[in-house]
Specification:
Chain lengths: 271, 218
């Protein structure tokens, strides 16, 4: 025992304080793999429905009926190399590709506002692939993707667009900062059907208050996997749910042990 | 060739970078040179992409001017003119004086045009939040009623009149801010982290379509 009375002292190659995290990471990845394997072997994987994803065809249909465009934006977030924002942009690309296919099929014009420079080539390529998948690659124009640098210029450009073009549907999915409430509220003013999605906890309340449907936290990352309905891909979502349950149990046990002033679990997690 | 570049090469780079970062985080207490070099490369590539963005921006708004798009083209002219004013003055400052801010025209534009306009827009957020809150604060069901009650306490905690109405209002409001909302937010953070992990796992195995600029759906 050390001076704090810790039960465990591990002095290994691994950075101090990250042993438990490594163990949990390996266990999580193993669980993902097991469920992917089971899915591939034919075991049916049931995951909860994502109403926001089911609403995308509805949003596209509304735009088709009204003869108006659909706006898609990923938020200013940060660059793709940003540890918390980058993955949200990448996850958003899967959803954008799906929405684009629906738009192409219904003859709806999509306008994508991409304010993140390093996501620009990915967004263009995703949309080009969507046109290709629908056999209409000749209709693809790079002008579908609009780049505006800087948060305030991006906000004003989108506000101007919303007022001029009055899109029937507005999809705000990605890493957002304060622009979320500005864009979503402006979209609400023009009566657009709105689907939001972010993993930024400080922006979730704004999108919940202003959007009709919402992809909350991990739903944003799961949405891309849910589109294809591949059983092995859905397996990772199942594994994720199991790990959440494990963590819930750990939290409960930690709560009780904390009351009993037994630091055993805390010490293990701190290793 | 295109498939090779689009999938296999991206797949390989992703794998190498992921393993490098994994090793750096868990096995190198003071950071690993290879990992920090890769992070610097990512920043450089991001900045190169900014140049691509500038080209795309000029092409898009140039077309608007060329087509005389109603209600837009004159703004596009202004954008292009201003783009070149900033580019030329910024470059002149950088080349002649070592930093773009040392050019007085560039500096004036930045501090007297760009910054106040940005601040004005940021200040407008208050009105947008107000109108969003107005719609959200309606007791349509039990959940919305609870939100309304918590919202009223938080609002009155931040407004001086709250304490005048009842001295305990700031105490309750502070509890909502410091304790009441924390478990909910942390739940989202933990759930988001697992989602991120699953996404990264799928991307590493080549199962995440958006990561490779591919599209899903039937």
């Amino acid at each position: 025992m050390d001076e704090r009375g810790d039960y465990l002292r591990v002095n290994t190659l691994i950075v101090a304080g990250r042993v438990a995290a490594l163990g949990l990471l390996i266990a999580t990845l193993a669980l993902f793999y097991v469920y992917m394997y089971l899915g591939k072997k034919g075991r049916e994987v049931q995951i909860r429905a994502l109403p926001a994803m089911e609403a995308i065809p509805e949003a596209v249909g509304r735009a088709a009926e009204m003869g108006k465009p659909l706006m898609y934006t990923i938020g200013i977030g940060g660059g793709l190399s940003d540890a918390s924002q980058g993955p949200q942009i990448l996850a958003s690309m899967s959803i954008m590709g799906y929405a684009a296919r629906e738009c192409i099929r219904s003859g709806v014009k999509m306008d994508a506002f991409i304010p993140v420079a390093d996501a620009l080539p990915l967004a263009e390529e995703t949309l080009r692939t969507a046109f290709l998948a629908e056999g209409k690659v000749e209709e693809f124009s790079p002008d579908i993707v609009r780049f505006i640098s800087g948060q305030s210029p991006y906000c004003t450009a989108v506000l101007g667009y919303l007022q001029r073009e009055r899109p029937a549907s507005n999809l705000l999915i990605g890493g957002f900062y304060y622009e979320s409430v500005i864009i979503a509220e402006a979209g609400n003013t023009i009566g657009a059907i709105q689907i939001g999605g972010t993993n930024n906890t400080h922006q979730m309340p704004f999108l919940i208050a202003t959007c009709d449907y919402m992809l909350l936290a991990e739903e944003l990352f799961a949405a891309g996997a849910a589109i294809g309905k591949d059983p092995d891909v859905l397996g990772t979502i199942k594994g994720e749910d199991i790990m959440k349950m494990v963590l819930l149990v750990l939290t409960g046990v930690g709560f009780l042990l904390g009351f009993a002033r037994v630091p055993f679990l805390i010490d293990i997690l701190k290793v | 060739m295109s498939t090779l570049l689009k999938r296999e090469v991206v797949y390989l780079i992703t794998g190498v970078v992921a393993v490098t970062m994994f090793i750096d985080f868990f096995f190198f207490p003071k950071g690993w040179d290879v990992a920090s070099t890769l992070q610097t490369w990512a920043m450089i590539i991001g900045n190169i992409a900014l140049g691509l963005g500038a080209v795309r921006l000029l092409l898009f708004y140039g077309k608007q001017v060329q087509k005389r798009t109603v209600g837009v083209w004159h703004y596009s002219v202004w954008l292009i003119v201003y783009f070149f004013i900033c580019l030329i003055t910024g470059l002149a400052g950088y080349i002649t004086l070592g930093h773009q801010d040392k050019n007085p025209i560039y500096y004036w534009n930045f501090t007297n045009v760009y910054t106040p306009l940005g601040q004005a827009l940021y200040a407008m957020t208050g009105f947008y939040i107000f109108s969003a809150a107005y719609r959200a604060f309606r007791a349509r069901n039990i959940d919305a009623a609870l939100l309304l009650i918590a919202g009223c306490f938080t609002l009155l905690t931040n407004a001086p009149i709250g304490e005048v109405i009842w001295v305990q209002i700031p105490v309750i409001g502070r509890w909502f801010l410091d304790i009441g909302q924390v478990p909910g937010m942390r739940t989202f953070m933990i759930a988001g982290a697992f989602g991120l992990l699953a996404y990264g796992f799928r991307a590493l195995l080549g199962k995440e379509k958006g990561f490779y600029a591919e599209v899903g759906g039937q």
